[in-house]
Write a structure and sequence with these properties.
This protein has two domains: 295 residues, Rossmann fold; 248 residues, Class I glutamine amidotransferase (GATase) domain (Rossmann fold). The protein has a nine-stranded mixed sheet, sandwiched between helices. A seven-stranded parallel sheet has the order 5-2-6-1-7-8-9, sandwiched between helices. Strands 14-15-18 form a three-stranded mixed sheet, covered by helices on one side. Helix 9 links the parallel strand 8 and strand 9. The protein is of the alpha/beta class. Bound molecules: glutamine.
Length: 569
C-alpha cells in the first residue's frame, strides 16, 4: 500500500511525505482558473463555470473542469435530491453533483472521477495513507496534509488530462467554515504555481432590494474582503445580478477588492443559458482571464464564428408548442430532474418546438388514482422519471396505465421503465399483485426483482449498478429506428433492480417487446409496445448523454411523437 501511494508523488525522499507534486509534474505546463463564490449559494456558480469553460474551449483550448465539494460524503450518491438536486452519473459510474452534467453538456465531453472530488474523498485517502504508515511517524495535520492532498488531486488532473487549463470550481460560498481548507489549498496552489499560472475568479452577488430600487454592493464587498482575509486576492470579479448593474457598482467593487475596473464583469439574467458563452466573450471575460495567465495570445479568438453558430443553433424561434408531463415525487424542485429538463431543451432546439413541462406529483395521485387521467389531460406526452422507494409508486403506475391505454406518448426512465412493466403485468398479463421487490420485499409476483449481482451488496454508497454499459438493440424495433439502426449503443445506468427473468416470457407473449438487452447478461434494458404510437421504457437514464445539438434519440423520439399527437405530423 505504501508503494502505491509513494508511486504518485515526486518527492519520495521527504521524511514527512506531504509532497503535493505528482511524479513528473512540470509547473506552468497547465494553468489553473479557480472559481469561488461569495455572498450566497444558488447564484449559478456551476452554470457560470461551465459556460465560461465553453467560451475557453471555443478558443481551441483543452479545458479540464473539476468540482471540489466541501462535504464529507465520498460522492453525491447518497444525497437527497430535495437538498442537492439530481445525482448525475458519469460513464465510469461516479455519482456526482449535477454541475458535472452541466460541464459535460457545455463542454460536450465525457468526464470521469478525476473531475470530481469531495472532502470526504480527500480525508479518506489521508486516513488510508496514515494507516499504511505512509507519513513515517509524522503527525498528520490539516496543513500541510489536507491542503497537500487537495493540491495533489488538482495537479493529478492537470497531468492526466494534459489540459491547457484546469477549471476548478470550489463548492460553497466564501465564509463557509466547511470549505476553508479548499480555500487554503487554492491559496497555496496559486502561490506555488505562480500568479502567471493561476487566475482566481470570484463570482459575487449584487443585491437589488425591491423596496429600495437600487443596487447594493455591500454584501459583495464584505464577501470579497473575506476572501482577501484568507490570503486570496481575486484577479477577476464577476458580479451576478438580476438586471444589468450600473457603473458605480463596478467602481465600488474595484476599489474595495483591489481589482482594476476592467477586470470587474457583470452577468445578469439572460433568460437563456445558451446565450452565456457568447455573452462572456462579448464582454471580454475570457480574454481578461487568459490575459492574467498569459494565454490570451496563444489562443486567439478567431472571430468566434463557431461560438456564434453554436449559440444560434441552440436558441431557435419555436414554431410549435407541446406539453410533456413529468410524473415524479420530487416535482417541487426541478433541479431533481435537471438532466431531463435539459434533454427536452436539446430536443426543443433541434425540432424548433417549445416544450412546456407539466409537473405531476405522483404522491398526490395516490389518494385518488382516477386523478391520473385528469392530470394527464392536455399533455402531449409523458415521462416517468427515475426514483427510489415506495412513495408515489402507485401514482406512477396509474400514469403508465393511462398512457398505455390512451395512446399518449410515453417514456419511462429507470424506475419509470419498471413501473411500465408492473402496470403491463397487472393489467395486460393478469398477474395479480405484480410489483417490485423494492416496494414489497417477499411478494409472490415481483416482476421487478433485485439484480443477481446486487444480492450480496451491503451499504448504500456507490453500490448500485452504475455507469455506462453497452446495450444490444434488437433489429427492426422502435429503439433500433431511434438509434439510427445501430445494434450496439452505450448509455448510463443507476439501479439495483431489474425485470425478473421468470416473467419475461409471459410479458413478451402478451405483447411487450424487450428491444434492448445487456450483451451477455439477461438484463432487460429497453422495452416497447408495438401498436402504441410511442411507448418506450429504458432501464438507463437516457438524459445523461443528451447534449446541446445532440439530443438523446429516445427523448427526440418522444418529442416527435408528442408533436405528431398534437399536430398530426
Ligand atoms: N429504484 C430503482 C432501482 O434501484 C430505479 C432506480 C432509478 O430510477 N434510478 O432499480
Amino acid at each position: 500500500m505504501n508503494e502505491k501511494f509513494l508511486a504518485e508523488i515526486s518527492d519520495k525522499s521527504s521524511g514527512e511525505r506531504f509532497s503535493a507534486f505528482p511524479e513528473g509534474y512540470v509547473k506552468g505546463r497547465t494553468k489553473y482558473v479557480i472559481i469561488t463564490g461569495s455572498v450566497m449559494s444558488g447564484i449559478g456558480k456551476g452554470i457560470f463555470s461551465s459556460a465560461l469553460g465553453k467560451t475557453l474551449k471555443d478558443r481551441g483550448m483543452n479545458v479540464a473542469p473539476i468540482k471540489v465539494e466541501a462535504y464529507l460524503n465520498i460522492d453525491s450518491g447518497t444525497l437527497s435530491p430535495y437538498r442537492h438536486g439530481e445525482v448525475f452519473v458519469l460513464d465510469d459510474g461516479t455519482e456526482t453533483d449535477m454541475d458535472l452534467g452541466s460541464y459535460e453538456r457545455f463542454l460536450d465531453t465525457g468526464l470521469s472521477k478525476d473531475n470530481f472530488t469531495t472532502h470526504g474523498q480527500i480525508y479518506k485517502r489521508i486516513i488510508e495513507k496514515e494507516r499504511a504508515g505512509f507519513y513515517q511517524g509524522r503527525d498528520v495535520q490539516y496543513i500541510p496534509h489536507v491542503t497537500g492532498e487537495t493540491k495533489l488531486v488538482l495537479r493529478n488532473l492537470a497531468m492526466k488530462s494534459k489540459a491547457d487549463i484546469v477549471l476548478i470550481e470550489i463548492g460553497g460560498t466564501v465564509g463557509d467554515y466547511e470549505n476553508l481548507f479548499a480555500m487554503e489549498s487554492v491559496r497555496e496552489l496559486i502561490y506555488e504555481e505562480g500568479r502567471e499560472n493561476a487566475c482566481l475568479v470570484n463570482l459575487t452577488y449584487i443585491l437589488e432590494p425591491h423596496h429600495l430600487g437600487e443596487f447594493k454592493s455591500k454584501a459583495a464587498q464584505l464577501g470579497l474582503r473575506h476572501l482577501m482575509s484568507l490570503g486570496l486576492q481575486p484577479d477577476v470579479v464577476v458580479c451576478r445580478s438580476e438586471r444589468p448593474i450600473t457603473g458605480n457598482v463596478k467602481e465600488k467593487i474595484s476599489m474595495n477588492a483591489n481589482v482594476p475596473i476592467e477586470m470587474v464583469f457583470n452577468t445578469y439574467d439572460v433568460g437563456n443559458i445558451y446565450e452565456l458563452p457568447l455573452f462572456y466573450r462579448e464582454q471580454g471575460l475570457d480574454s481578461a482571464i487568459l490575459g492574467t495567465i498569459n494565454l490570451d495570445r496563444k489562443f486567439p479568438v478567431n472571430g468566434s464564428k463557431s461560438l456564434k453558430d453554436w449559440t444560434a443553433r441552440n436558441i431557435v424561434e419555436p414554431e410549435k408548442e407541446i406539453t410533456i408531463g413529468v410524473a415524479g415525487k420530487y416535482t417541487g424542485t426541478s433541479d431533481t430532474y435537471i438532466s431531463i429538463v435539459k434533454a427536452l431543451e436539446h430536443c426543443s432546439a433541434a425540432l424548433k418546438v417549445k416544450v412546456g413541462i407539466k409537473w405531476i406529483e405522483t404522491t398526490d395521485l395516490e389518494k385518488d388514482l382516477g386523478k391520473a387521467e385528469h392530470e394527464m389531460s392536455g399533455i402531449d406526452g409523458i415521462i416517468i422519471p427515475g426514483g427510489f422507494g415506495t412513495r408515489g409508486v402507485e401514482g406512477k403506475i396509474a400514469c403508465a396505465g393511462h398512457a398505455r391505454k390512451s395512446g399518449i406518448p410515453f417514456l419511462g426512465i429507470c424506475y419509470g421503465f419498471q413501473m411500465a412493466v408492473i402496470e403491463f403485468a397487472r393489467n395486460v398479463c393478469g398477474i395479480k399483485g405484480a410489483n417490485t421487490e423494492e416496494v414489497k420485499k417477499d411478494a409472490e409476483n415481483n416482476v421487478i426483482c433485485i439484480l443477481p449481482e446486487q444480492e450480496e451488496v451491503e451499504g448504500l454508497g456507490g453500490t448500485l449498478r452504475l455507469g455506462g454499459f453497452d446495450i444490444k438493440v434488437k433489429k427492426g424495433t422502435l429503439a433500433h429506428e431511434l438509434y439510427g439502426k445501430k445494434e450496439k449503443v452505450r448509455e448510463r445506468f443507476r439501479h439495483r433492480f431489474n425485470v425478473n427473468t421468470k416473467f419475461i416470457d409471459i410479458l413478451e407473449k402478451s405483447g411487450m417487446v424487450f428491444s434492448g438487452m445487456a450483451p451477455s447478461k439477461r438484463i432487460m434494458q429497453i422495452l416497447e409496445l408495438p401498436g402504441h404510437p410511442f411507448f418506450i421504457g429504458t432501464q438507463y437514464h437516457a438524459e445523461f448523454t443528451s447534449r446541446p445539438l445532440k439530443p438523446n434519440p429516445v427523448y427526440l423520439g418522444l418529442v416527435k411523437a408528442a408533436l405528431k399527437r398534437k399536430y398530426g405530423k
